[in-house]
């Protein structure tokens, strides 16, 4: 059984990736950000059979010693740890640089010096900013419209530089808007679904005009697995978009969710949920041709199929109880 490491393993995408890697027969060393409650995040909800193959390590990517201990002796590292909420990046930009730039530097240094065979670095479609051409290929200009996006772009550039300078075996995956069970209410889909599941028919949102390329989390986890296991000559040193190639506006998304949940929804605009005008990314839609041609990866779930599974998750009272549906989750 090969050993792999995952940073950010306790999070939304990270926990799904851990499940995927265990299903493939890997032993997973899962870094969870240290906290005094000994909370393991979403890993606590995984089945005992999955957790039998998971070693949970409390640590912090901002600390080089934590990272070195995590990755030593592994065959691949999946680096997902990041601060991700865009509104909070307006309030605490220094913490985003510490985690998303310096944290990534620590991972790159550990992989380089310990000679780990593969590093999968996580980027984000937010680094592109509002689409200048569609669909967005990996050659689209980088246009960072928030401190979060800028910090992620900084990590991306470090990854590129380490491959160029030291031949560090890094591949960058740039997922578009992932959604699914376990996602926090800082994202629009769980914000809508959780409010409806809690019995509300008047929901509170920000701008309804932006369009996004929404991809179900199981497809995202599969994209990570794919670039982590593909032959080195096909992926190392390259950046890959992962998305469906489709787009839907937030307003139309609300209508679709209402239809799937059997309710007519009224949307109330909340000013605190609206980004500054020049910071709002108005359109994102992926061109994932490069990833498909290099690895054969393709999404398996339609938007509706993914939404149905997400709705089922939030309708479970035990899951819904984990969320605060009556406040703005930054």
From TrEMBL:
It comes from the Bacteria. InterPro entries: Arna-like_SDR_e (IPR045869), NAD(P)-bd_dom (IPR016040), NAD(P)-bd_dom_sf (IPR036291). Residues 132-154 are annotated as: Disordered. GO terms for molecular function: carboxy-lyase activity. Residues 6-310 form the NAD(P)-binding domain. This is NAD-dependent dehydratase.
């Amino acid at each position: 059984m090969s050993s792999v490491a995952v940073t950010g393993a306790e999070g939304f995408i990270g926990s799904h990736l851990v499940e995927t890697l265990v299903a493939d027969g890997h032993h997973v060393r899962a870094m969870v950000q240290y906290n005094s409650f000994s909370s393991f995040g979403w890993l606590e909800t995984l089945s005992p059979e999955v957790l039998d193959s998971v070693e949970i390590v409390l640590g912090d990517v901002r600390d080089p010693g934590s990272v070195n201990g995590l990755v030593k002796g592994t065959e691949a590292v999946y680096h997902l740890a990041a601060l991700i909420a865009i509104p909070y990046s307006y309030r605490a930009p220094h913490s985003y640089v510490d985690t998303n730039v310096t944290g990534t530097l620590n991972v790159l240094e550990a992989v380089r010096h310990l000679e780990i065979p593969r590093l999968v670095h996580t980027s984000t479609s937010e680094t592109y900013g509002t689409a200048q051409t569609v669909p967005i290929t990996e050659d689209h200009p980088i246009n960072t419209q928030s401190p979060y996006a800028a910090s992620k772009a900084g990590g991306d550039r470090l990854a590129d530089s380490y491959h160029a300078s030291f031949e560090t075996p890094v591949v960058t995956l740039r997922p578009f808007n992932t959604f699914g069970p376990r996602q926090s209410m800082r994202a629009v889909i769980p914000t809508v679904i959780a409010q409806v599941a809690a019995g509300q028919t008047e929901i509170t949102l920000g701008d309804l005009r932006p369009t996004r390329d929404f991809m179900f989390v199981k497809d995202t986890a599969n994209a990570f697995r794919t670039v982590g296991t593909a032959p080195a000559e096909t992926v190392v040193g390259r950046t890959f978009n992962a998305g469906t190639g489709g787009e839907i506006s937030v307003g139309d998304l609300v209508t679709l969710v209402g239809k799937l949940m059997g309710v007519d929804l009224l949307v109330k605009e909340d000013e605190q949920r609206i980004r500054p005008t020049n910071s709002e990314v108005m359109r994102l839609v992926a061109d994932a041709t490069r990833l498909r041609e290099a690895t054969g990866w393709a999404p398996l779930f339609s938007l509706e199929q993914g939404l149905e599974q997400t709705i089922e998750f939030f309708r479970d009272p035990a899951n819904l109880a984990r969320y605060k549906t009556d406040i703005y989750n930054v």
